[in-house]
Amino acid sequence: MNTTAIRQRWRNWRGNWGLDALLLLALAAATVNRFAPEPVSGDVMLYSVMSLQNVTLFFWGQNRLLNVGPALTSLIHDPAANLWANLLFPTLVFFGLLRAWAGVAVRLVSPPDSDGDRQVNTRRARQLFLLLSAIVLLVLKPHAVYEVVVWHVEYPLACLLLLWAHETWFAASGANRLLGPLWLRMLVVALLLGLALGVNFSTVIPALALVGGRMLLQRRLEMRNLGFAGLAVVLFLLWWLVAHRVAGPSGTEYAGFSFATLREGLPLALGSMQNALWLPRLEALLLVVVTLRLWQAWRNRSSWNVQVLWVQILAVLFALGWLLLFAGNAWVQKFAFHYRYFVFAWLAFGIALSLELAKLLAAIPGFWRMTATALAFLWLIAVLIRAPVPLQQYAFAQRVAPIVGMGTTIYAGEFEQTWSAVMAGMLQRQPAFGVTGRAEGNKKGLREHIASALRQDGRLEVGCLQDTVESCLKQVNAYAEQTVRVREARLIAGRKPAWYLVLEQGMPPTPAMTREPAAHWTYRGTDLISLYSQVGYGDLKGIHSLGEEGFLLYGPYRAASQGVYRLQIFGTVQQAGTAWADVVARSGNLRYAQFALQPGEDALVDELVSLPRDEPDVEIRVYVGTGDVVRITGYEWRLQAH
Fold this sequence. Notes:
The chain has 642 residues and is α+β, with helices and mostly antiparallel strands. Helix content is 55%, strand content 17%.
């Protein structure tokens, strides 16, 4: 390739990059504004808290390189702009992955022979990208869009980096001239692969699968394939060694697999994925694509592209293999086989589907191609259109507004609520620190702040969210250099009740030594605040319904051994058309008992429940319908017999 051709390609690429960048930015910003205001969670808040307070190599409390986003946004010191950037970054990564893969898919289907072909492929890749983006928003339910697109950056970011590393390593000779000498390419690939594996250790599996697929298609060994695989394995082992020097989950937890877990986990994993998808939409989409491809193949009497077909088959086999491997994984079991652990399988299945779409775009006339693109664009607008939502009006900020508005600087209690309050306080330009899970990552600054407040005012104001006073006091004392005790405790009643605590130096009273056995739980009155509620109002007497449909209470996600238990639920039911209580486990996927709630008072439920096996996360749930009038004042769960 001569110098003039290289310059022309550079100009074309630069022009296309500008258009793609604007498209990605607009799509990502609209997606955040549409899907993030309601469900944005404490883990996402932590990205921004870390970025503003203490950026570390690893995500606080974990041993994976998940602080890429906080490190990039740490230059943004305004809390609102920083939080927005930390919401935008994962979303940009996800749509960037779709755009990058769209280019590869079109090139696989229609390899370019000239600059004119490359320009045509660029337009088709952009059209395919819009189609894929529309499909994502068509088949994923809103909560899954938030989880996969806006929140869990470790999956799309690892895939995007792996894709770039693969394309750089196996670049054609003409492209190699643009990338520079061999040593520079190797350095770039090592950096990309190293980041991908640091962000998500399991990226080594698709990396090796890529190499295995290439060798299978080529039917021979090549040093380039072996070199890429070897580099991936070496970098994986290096990260593994580094991670074992950092506190976090052990390698055994990540890697544990058993067939017993697989037997239990496969239906639960499939059920979790089903709950994330609009299955009728997905089935209709697949039917349309398959019908069009069969019609197009019959009409043109053309032979199948065998190489592309093999890529699709290998992608589907990888997706099935990933499903089986991680449905039997102990770490995935620990988190109830949540669908996010199968994003790599989803993306592999998406490879097969996107190649079919790329074939259609290459075969159909320009009018129909533009029509399909226009329909996808209109669908994106229809789904994403929404008036801009200020961060102060996000649901997390509204939930914690009563306690944050009192001027507290330390927040303790339930994880989600605590870090939401910290972020809400920072948005109001207040000093704000959390002392719940993962606060260890900011231990130094937290201790200094507590010591300064006690030294200057002799008191420490603490917001205790969705937890007991004793538990919040224990959390604060884990980081305070001088032991503190409660001077004042005031309940802030509401849909998300909380305690306003004033602490002072001194030893707290010694609690009575009446430790409950693990098989006996009791929640009474304000103890219910430490549980979860969708539609309840908490006060000093317990929690009562507001006439809305949903879970009045659920939790506490505690372990229970095999046996027969007695469940007693206390309260008052004035009206109950559809109210019920149940006992579930595995994030609600396994139900052991259900009881209707009838009008009455005192013991609303007094029943025996049998657990045929040990369960790590038992919940007692109370559900109310629209118009039901129910107050729960407590419940008791006690083992009767093994």
